[in-house]
Amino acid sequence: MAYVRKDVSALTRGERRRFVKALLEIKRRGEYDEFVRVHVDHFIGDGDRRLRAAHMTPSFLPWHRQYLLDLERALRRVDASVTVPYWDWTKDRTARSVPWTADLLGGNGRSSDQQVTTGPFAYAEGHWTIREGVTDAKFLTRDLGRRRDPIDLPTGADVRWALDDPVYDVAPWNSTVGRGFRNKLEGWGAGHGSRSWHNHNRVHRWVGGVMLTGASVNDPVFWLHHAFLDLQWHRWQLRHREHRYLPASPPGRGSDQHRRIVARHERLPPWDVTPDELEDVSRIYRYA
User: Fold this and answer.
1) I want to staple 109 with a disulfide (CB 3.0 to 4.6 A). Which of 19, 33, 114, 247 is the partner?
2) pTM higher than 0.70, yes or no?
3) pLDDT tens across 237-253, in order?
């Protein structure tokens, strides 16, 4: 029977407590740091000539869907009642709203060094030391809303702009495309600065701190953010039932993207699973 992923704002006190406890337990076991390593290893930009599966690519959504499933399975081995909640940043939009509460993810980082000092993931609590990162810092950092150069979270209209596009993705299948649901949701835009950041990318920049890096998984909000993105893929599928993941076939030898992206029936590294197999997960979970 499919389990349910809920809006984080709808979690009961007990559900919040069990979710946090399960995260801390897989961190204690060393499993969580392995999730960070996997993300860092697959943080490959489209300027790189290697195969990219996780970012700036059509498989952005199925890659993170499988990644979320792996994390959720780890949590459920600790407590079978736990699922990954989603953070709807179109309605919970301030640094004082859920999920930035003391019983969930804690609050903003302090102004001096962006260190998070409240909640269960604060360094001083002794349970959330950063071991896999891109700097030597051992503590979780955030800069919610960017103090020095403020930005806003994406709106419902921003999400609808992506959902309204009936085509999943288009050539050249990277960060430069201006059409297609995938990149409108992933959020790579033209130009420079905050105007070029949409949806997924803008949220990472709004949170700041470690969420700006390839080791963004060190902030547990990563999972709540990507669960909300996964929900948008599900909504897009319901809205555009005649459309599917693209490309259906791998780009040929004459293409700049030859062997650099994952087509619908190709293996999605580091797993033995294809985007095709991840399009329907209704037997595993559903959204409340």
Assistant:
1) 114
2) yes
3) 999 999 999 999 999 99
